[in-house]
Amino acid sequence: MNYKYILSVILLSSIVYVSCEDTIEVDNGFETPQFVVDAWINNNVDEEQVISLSFSQDYFDNRLPDAVTNASVTVTNGSSTYTFEHRAMGQYVWTPESGESIGDVGDSFTLTVDFDDETYTSTTELNPVPEIDSIRIYFEDQAFGADDGLYAELYARDIPGKGNTYWVKSFRNDTLLNKPQELNIIYDATFDAGTDLDGTTFIRPLRFAINALDEDGLPRDLNPGEKVASEIHSISSEAFRFLQIVQEQTTNGDNGIFTLPIANSRGNVFDSSGNRALGVFNVSAVSKMEKTVE
Amino acid sequence: MKSYNYSQLLVVFLFSISFLQAQEYTISGYIRDAENGETLIGSFIYLAENGASTVSNEYGFYSITVEEGNYTLYGTYLGYKDNIQAITLTQNRTINIEMAPDANTLDEVVVTAEEVDRNVRSLEMSVNKLDIKTLEKLPTLLGETEILRGIQLLPGVTSVGEGAAGFNVRGGSIDQNLVLLDEAPVYNSSHLFGFFSVFNPDAVKDVKLYKGGIPARFGGRLSSILDVRMKEGNNKELEVNGGIGTIFSRLSVEAPIIKDKSSFIVAGRRSYIDVLAAPFLSDDAGDTELNFYDLTLKTNYKFSDKDQIFLSGYFGRDNFGFGESAGFSWGNQTGTFRWNHLFSDKLFANLTTYFSNYDYQINFGDTSEDTFDWTANIKNYSIKPEFSWFIRPQNILRFGGQTIYYIFEPANAISVSNSEVTDISTSEQFSLESNVFVENEITLFNKLQMNYGLRLSHFAYLGGRNVYNFGEAPLGEVRPLESTTVAEDGEVIEDYINLEPRFSLKVDLNEKSSFKASYNRTAQYIHLLSNTTASTPVDIWTPATNNIKPAMADQVAAGYFRNFKDNTYEFSGELYYKKMNNLIDYIDGADLILNELVEGQILEGEGRAYGAEFMLKKTEGRFSGWVSYTLARSERLVEGINNNDWYPSRFDQTHNLSITTFYELSDRLTLSANFVYNTGTPTTFANSGYYQQGYFIPNNDLNERNNVRIPDYHRLDLSLTLDPKPGKRKWKGQWVFGIYNVYARRNPFSIYFRQDDARVNPGQAVNTEAIRLSVIGSFIPSISYNFTFK
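YS: structure for the whole thing
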């Protein structure tokens, strides 16, 4: 949830009472499935890394994607090459030896996927991630539109230098907060480039965005005994731009008369002729923290 | 642009001077309503003997110069009795004309408010004038007299949908319209997004929309000028007008301060939508505050027949409050001071200075440890001298200039959290826009009338801030910041100069018909950054900078105008073609607010719009009204969008039809109806979707823009007006009953794709659906009561 999201809630609540929404059938002109690479991995020690390959589908199919099961997938950091083996449902897995990780901050990685007489490649760099200083649980009586109660805030400080980008993944009682409105991405402690902020504590709306949202899109308060966890993943600037458009487009339906034009997220995977394929290859460094509400 | 030169200016002057002759005298003066002293704009004054004629200007002034002799002077204005005076002209004469309203036609529905054959006779084309009396009888949403919705019933004027702010003229975006209230620009002309306009009908005297053939005295926007003039206030007696409607209450008071010399008007409105909306809001939002109001003021003082001053102001605000913890408000303020001075019977001068401000404020949190305060505004100050030289009835020369100083404050935003202060403001922008113009209106051989002029405009983007230089980026991606320099206060960072030629021509084909043609070039130096379907109140304006060029447009139009049956029917048909350059668009995922480096996310493109507009009016009789139909196309070409191919703009509507009718059931009872139909506006659909880390991401496989259309829009509205009993009485009341959207069609505003609100467990599919959003989901009845006391 960011300022702009809050704003759209304000804008909309005022027109809601005369408007009406109907679910309709539309012909969206879907024709051909396309190859999709879903390769977001990290350099955690001893952690299995998974890359998924699938096909795109009609937007209204409301089903899981068709898996790509007969590809070959490798990732190299220059010195070592890691082979991802197909396990099931289009998931390709690399299992580390004990104490092993896929590389270090500063390494450059190349993904190579061979499928159907085509080679798809992508390169990315492993960026640094800041430590989480604390997760604070506190009583909030001013939460916009939400109940008074206990809420969590994530304290971390952006790494000095312009253009650091992060994805904060949060969990409540081990459930990943995966709603589009809960997607929390950070550019130098704030929402986006274009401010003077750098190297400071993440700004308030981003710190607060680790709280789960209810079905009305409002933050849900915490009860004693509940568990809050957050992970900061460093991401590349391409991945940040990709997720920024994902955030905008997957929540566009919340904007009523103020919808944005349809925009495609641009990935960083290319076929051998240089055409952009769907999906992203990103390697993250991760910091995490967990806290139980007392 | 350099191909034009100043010798052309000289030609303009010489042309006019060649018509100067000796032994002539001037009749001049003001033309006013006899009952309330309001000056009448655009009344037709002529001399029966030689047919010399003129039209009163925006201040009601006229001047007519003819050879000495005996004349019969006619002052005419529709809805008024002709004022006829015999004049012996042996010296210059000042004759102020007072027009008595015609009791027989006063309560009649009047579709046009000027001389009967203006459609054919006037040089103006692509210009529409709306009379407040006509607007009052139009069926409207919740019974409110609405200027901006009224003009959407005219050919060439559209909107992306109900609730959308602003309007689109001949394929231009909403920021291409210059909306003037007593010459001060109004940056957001809407209350409650786009449902109501900021103009209080009780305070408005005259509304004129220039869609083309824009004279050289106007400029600053590509597509249109909406010139709204306020009443001066009754200078004969106290008059109180008001109304109680479903959404607003209105009250206006006007009275002389010194009879015939000075008067004032104060008009206010306030909504009670908060009261109406309360039951529909959830308990959490119980303390919701939702209201809007506006206050319009004007006063004038006449020092002599030669000097008169006017002071007018507007203040309006929309407020949204959510308990003590959040608030959002926006509004315009304008102030105009004008001084009319007659240098001679033939040379009329007006000096206007104005101030205009649009601002919004957003705040959250009410403890000093946790707050978020965000304000933004656009302010401008201007001075504008203008001269009209009524050389002969066949020749008027106008010249003048203007300087506007702009201050843009795109975001002044401070976030305080646990007493930690974070300033995410973006820096202010300053600029200076200046222009001079000369315009000559001339009639040749009684059949040919022309208005040609030149406008020289200059824009300077000024220092007092950082200047950003961006590097190259792949098409459609954020351009990287390459270097930053600091420009001192007042330093010119970048400037632009443009010569804008204007030309219109009318040829009388016969008594009843004429042919008109026009060309205009217009330059626009400020842009509204808006990427959403409907513009939001937080959209900000940006000046042309070192990275953003001014937009330019060239428009040609030609039309045939004809009146039938003794001017009972008026027909006009026009064709236009408009080419626009340096229009702004945005990269995918552009961040337009709270972004210091927004210039790096702007794309530049071109546009073209063309169409045919037809209008047929019946102006007299118990049954009156008009039909307007537009066949049009509005397209954009932007590198990086739609595979670098032309695509229809978001407000492109192929067919646009509106039928507005009034039927007088009796002396007091009028039934009005309007029907509108337009082709659905274009939008973009995602064809496919794919999964990425559990998120289901929409994708437009062919990378097209605006490739599908939402269903067509049509709507019927009815209203019944019960006028007061005729005769002289102090209190006159009028009832208006209306139904908006009579057959309750759920007209789509947009179709968007939505994902399930519920949390998706790992291994589950994300559910999606298409939603049709109708801003008005039903028919909306209304009752309002209007009164006049004097």
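YS: worth flagging: The longest helix of chain B spans residues 6-17.
IM: good catch. Also Confidence is low (pLDDT under 50) at residues 9-21, 105-114 of chain B.
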